[in-house]
Amino acid sequence: MKTADFDYDLPPELIAQEPLPERSESRMLVLPRHGGDITHRTVTDIVTCLHRGDLLVVNDTKVFPARITGHRLDTGGRAELLLTHRVENVGGGEIWEALMRSGFRPRRGMGLSMADGGLVAKILEPLADGRVRVRLEGREPLETVLDRHGKIPLPPYIKRGEGDTLRAVADRERYQTIYATRRGAVAAPTAGLHFTDDLLDVLKRVGVGVATVTLHVGPGTFRPVASDDPADHVMDAEWYEVSPEAADLIAATRSAGHRVVAVGTTTVRTLETVASEHERVVPASGWSRLFIRSPFEFKAIDGLLTNFHLPRSTLLMLVSALCDDVEGGGRERVLAAYRAAVAEQYRFYSYGDCMLIV
C-alpha cells in the first residue's frame, strides 16, 4: 500500500478555524468497526453508543505555551522557537530540544534573546529537520516565563493573525481538554476536546468507566508521510505513561468481556505500545515510536473516538488499520466515511467534528 492511497479531497472551508460555542455540540459520525452502515449523530449520543461496563481511556496531557519569539543577540535577526521536550535540567538553566524558524542558519554557541528578554537561549547543537538543542536561562522559572510570554502552538491549518488577541486568549482554554493535568504537549489530543464535565458525569452514571493515561503529543502529529512507501516513515518519539490504576481498570474491563474505547489516536498508541511489548496493558512509561498501519493486531483497544485527520497522515493510517477485517478493507471503508462527512459538511481537524468507531 502506498502513501498516495491515503489521499482525499477536502474543501478548505470545511477546516474548522475555531471551536463550537459548546464542546459537546459537535457532530459524530458513527462507523461500525466490523462492517455496517454509518450513521450521523452528535457527541452526546456517545452515551447510547457505549454499554454499561465499557471503559473510556483518555489522555490527560496538557498543552503548554511552547512557542516563543525573539532575536539574535548579535545581529537582531528574528527567531522563533517551538519547545518540544526537555532534555535535562542543568545548574541555572534547562536544556531543551526545539524547532527553530529564522532567516539565518543556527550555529553552535549562537545566543538568542527570547520571550521579551525573559530568556536567553544558547544554541548547543543544530540538529536535523530544523531542530536545535538549546540551553534556556532566565531570571524567573521557565514555566512562569512561558505562561506570560509563550503562545499555544496551534496546528498550521488554524490561521491566527498577529493581533488576534481575543481568539488567542480563547485558544488557551479551548485547545485543551477539560481533564488536562500533565503539562508537556505541543498539540492537543483533539478527540478529547468534545467532552464536558456534564457528559462525563452522564457516562459514569450509566456505568461507563473512565481511565487516564498520558502521552505528550509532539509536533510530528501534523507531519505527513513524505515517502512513497509508508514503511520508510520514521515516527517522532513521544513520552507516555500508563499508571497502575489505569492498567488495572483495563484488565478488569477485558476480563469482564466489556470494551476498551480509546479517546484519540494518542491514547491508542500509548496502550498499543505497551501491549506490543508486554502482550497486555501493564503499568509502564517510556518513549513511543509505534507506527500503526495495516496489517496490525490490536491487543489493547476495541473502539476509538477520533477527529478527522489530514491526508497522507500516520493518524489516518491508524484509523484505517483499526477498521480492517480478516480481508483488510479498512482504508476503503474509512475513506468512504470521510467522503460522506464531506458531503454532510462536517467540520474537519482539531477544532472540528469527530467519528466513533465501535
Question: SSE layout and pairings?
Answer:
Elements: E1 27-31, E2 39-42, H1 46-49, E3 55-59, E4 61-63, E5 67-72, E6 78-90, E7 93-102, E8 111-114, E9 119-126, E10 131-137, H2 142-149, H3 165-174, E11 182-185, H4 197-205, E12 209-215, E13 238-242, H5 244-255, E14 260-263, H6 265-278, E15 284-288, E16 303-307, H7 314-322, H8 330-343, E17 354-357
Helix pairs in contact: 7-8
* Fourth-level CATH superfamily of the largest domain: QueA-like
Please tell me the total number of domains: 2
The CATH first-level class of the largest domain comes to Alpha Beta
Helix content: 10-25%
CATH topology of the largest domain: QueA-like
Spatial strand order of the main sheet: 2-1-17-16-14-3-12-13-15
Number of helices: 8
Question: Mean pLDDT, rounded to whole units?
Answer: 95
CATH architectural group of the largest domain: 3-Layer(aba) Sandwich
What class do helices, strands and sheet pairing give? alpha/beta
Radius of gyration: 21 Å
> What portion of residues belong to β-strands?
25-35%
Runs with pLDDT <50, length 5+? none
